[in-house]
Amino acid sequence: MSKAPAKASGKSPSPEERLVCDHKKARFHYEVLETYTAGLVLVGTEVKVMREGKMTLDESYARVQEGECWLIGANIPEYSHGNLQNHEPKRKRKCLLHRREIQKLQAKSQQQGLTLVPLKVWFSTKGFAKVTIGVCKGRKTHDKRQHLRDKDARREIRER
């Protein structure tokens, strides 16, 4: 006696969101006031390199120009098996945001002392590349020292 195959429930298990790179120094050098999540417009070879986890956000920033948000200075090295269609490693990449979010970012980036810093890049559950952009304020040296003291104190409390 054979049984009929069981029907799958409506949803299939989705893979978790996968972190590509994290800009840890940004949280030390800047105080993050707000964060925005944006999609990234990429070329095929860039996606392949990012899936290998070979991206860096050091020295990168975001800027609003002509009503569009751009990720500038992010380094995605050339694909090892790429050919003539390989990408330029430090090219400008467009960030996909709603118009109102872009207007808010532009207004905040024009305030003195605030800058747009990419905090992390990751793949969503659907496989789209996303970037988390923070509206940040630079920390002074004494603020950095105080931040380290607070961090150490929190760690000691957790260990006890």
Description of the structure:
The chain is α+β, with helices and mostly antiparallel strands and 160 residues long. A seven-stranded antiparallel sheet has the order 1-6-7-2-5-4-3. It has helices at 24-29, 44-51, 99-110, 141-159, and strands at 18-22, 30-40, 61-65, 68-72, 93-96, 114-123, 129-138. It contains four helices and seven strands. The longest helix is centred in the C-terminal third of the chain and has 19 residues, at 141-159.
Q: What is the gist of this entry?
A:
The chain is an alpha+beta fold and 160 residues long. It has four helices and seven strands. The radius of gyration is 20 Å and the shape is globular.
Main sheet attributes: strand count, strand direction, barrel closure = 7 strands, antiparallel
Give the full name of the CATH homologous superfamily: Small protein B
Gyration radius from CA atoms, angstroms: 20 Å
Gap between N and C termini: 61 Å
Instruction: Give the helix proportion (percent range).
Output: 25-40%
CATH topology: Small Protein B, Chain: A
Rounded mean pLDDT score? 84
Strand segment tally:
7
Uncertain stretches: 1-14
What's the arrangement of strands in the largest beta sheet? 1-6-7-2-5-4-3
Shape: globular
Quickly count the domains: 1
Determine the number of helices (DSSP H or I, runs of at least 4 residues).
4
Q: What structural class should be given to the helix and strand makeup? A: alpha+beta
Going by CATH, the architecture would be Beta Barrel
The string of secondary-structure elements, in order, is: EHEHEEEHEEH
CATH class (first level) name: Mainly Beta
Strand content: 25-35%
